[in-house]
Amino acid sequence: MKEATAADVAKLALGDINFDPDALRAKYLEERDKRLRDDANEQYIEVEGDFSNYVDDPYEAKVEREPLNDTVEIVIIGGGFGGLLLGGRLREAGFDDIRVIEKGGDFGGTWYWNRYPGAMCDVESYCYLPMLEELDYIPKHKYSFAPEIMAHTQNIAKHYGLYDNACLSTEVTDLAWDESEQYWIVTTNRGDRMRARYVAMANGPLNRPKLPGIPGISDYKGHTFHTSRWDYDYTGGSSEGGLTGLADKRVAVIGTGATAVQCIPHVGEAAEALFVFQRTPSSIDVRDNRATDPDWAASLPQGWQRDRMENFNALTSGRVIEEDLVMDGWTEIIRNLISMANYRGKNLSGEEVARLMELADFEKMEQIRARVDAIVEDPSTAEALKPYYRQFCKRPCFHDTYLPTFNRSNVKLVDTEGKGVTAITATSVIANGEEYPVDCIIFATGFEVGTGFSRRAGYDVEGKDGVRLSQKWSDGIQTLHGLHSHGFPNLLIMSNAQSAFTTNFPHAMDENARHMAYLLDTCRDRSIKQFEADLDAEQAWVQEIIGLSRFSEAFQSECTPGYYNNEGQPNPLSKQNASYGKGPIAFFDRMRAWREQGELTGLNCR
Q1: How far apart are CA 442 and CA 270, in angstroms?
Q2: Which of 79, 112, 91, 94 minimizes the C-alpha distance to 201?
Q3: Which of 461, 528, 473 is nearest to 184 (CA)?
Q4: Helices then strands, each counted (H, E), the chain
Q5: In order along the chain (606 residues), what is the average pLDDT of each group of 10 residues?
């Protein structure tokens, strides 16, 4: 019998393809090469000193209070979904003495800061918004808008009494372990010096605004702000749009990532002129948002949200599931790729399966590019808006009004051919050798990802013997289960590094919150005052993470630069800093088995 080739199986699985895989491969590398630069993450400047206003809180006035010098049982750093979930699960476990410290003026985390017009979740809200059943709440749309999400975070905080004893508009500046007292000393920018038996870091991965180090950025005399600190006093309007203050303004938006995709339609609708400066186009698929069907909501059985979250997680983790409860762009992407991975045929090697997945990826991205042609009227603008890279080189976006915005006569795409803006003057933005006078510059440049832990968190952690966490992790993250680090007793870490990564990030945070609540509850029941990762157990976990890592330096190297691949310079520590390589379901099962065993294996307790 003739051995099946990848091409044979591709024809069976995909049918006749209307693209040349070799030509696309070459085009992807050509587009990558345009964007490669030696400075990688160093191209961004830290928001401090002259740029500190980009992290100031424009939404809530800081309420003056006396510094705290007291003792609490549990301090949670961060009032976003991670901190809220942990606080809620701890309340359910019977813990009363909890303090949340949050630098924003209210709870919400990302959804406190991101109030730009059009902001919304890009994972289905019935999965994304946590604790819907606990609060007996059904989101208004399949994809919720930011005000509703922020209100939900506040309702979680109210439901679980997390406003009680909270420190809002407060930033942790240092965290140090006092070995003699067996307490953490938490220092803040409000003069606080409080003690805590346990500390949980739920800072979140995306919290510090990122600014491009464009020459002349500090020379600009017009108005500027970052999308995570939207200035409605200047633009007018609200998160729903109606930015009437821009009616006589020439506006520049720098950046075309997920945030820009959501806010640009509103800016384009309002401004006298809008210039969108693009280095790399985003992949824009159909959003198809719609209001929640009340009959469907009324029919939901008990336990519906957890079932839906687990179904979505299984599908986006590559499991073959007969029923897709969510049916959105995320599940379609993964179903297409996995159908190729599982199409074995006869005598088909792993290498040929990988090639099939690449072909399926090519086919989907061809659909994305064809959608641009179908919507954008000007051929040159359409061509510039087409993404030429593999789907998961960058976070996929879903939107229905972003591409049509470029058909407006007052909107101009300034495609920089991968080079970015070259300079800013007192009055203008310069790109491609042309000067664009503007009244306002909006930086839609996202959040820091590849910078050091202490820079992103805004503080460092001093453990036993004066060892700093930034020092210990300088050569790669070292944890047990992603939750504990040797030398840092009674410290809990809410992160996806060496833990679980899910497309629906709150799902992983909730699993970790349940695990942490179990641990503290067990310590209380057994009169355990201190727990710490055993060094041997930690080292074994790190080696397991490295061994299981799915990180492919070849794939990352071929991607266009972005925060997924360390701006085109794949980090050699990516294997060590990765999430659990067997996927989130296997990680959740493993942590569940660890709890059921009940021996706190890998932790030294006393």
Answers
A1: 14
A2: 79
A3: 461
A4: 20, 21
A5: 45 66 93 85 63 77 94 97 98 98 95 95 96 98 97 98 97 96 97 98 75 88 93 96 98 95 98 97 95 97 97 88 87 70 54 78 93 98 97 92 98 96 96 97 77 66 96 95 98 95 95 98 97 98 93 81 77 86 96 98 97
AA letter at 82: G
Q: Residue 396 has which token pair?
A: 């996929």
Beta strands in 448-575 (DSSP E): 461-462, 491-493, 531-533
Instruction: Report how far residue 218's alpha carbon sits from residue 149's, in angstroms, rounded to the nearest whole number.
Output: 34
How does strand 440-443 pair with strand 223-226?
A: parallel
Query: Residue type for 280, please?
Result: T
Structure tokens at 128: 């994304």
Residue whose tokens read 């330096």: 553
- DSSP annotation of 442 reads E
Exposure string over 450-484, b if 16+ CB within 10 A, otherwise e: beebbebbbbbbbbeeebbbbebbeebbbbbbbbb
Residues of the chain by 3-state class (helix, strand, coil), percent to 5 = 40, 15, 45
Cα gap 22→276, rounded to integer Å: 32
pTM for the structure as a whole? 0.92
Return the number of other C-beta atoms located less than 10 Å from residue 229's C-beta: 20
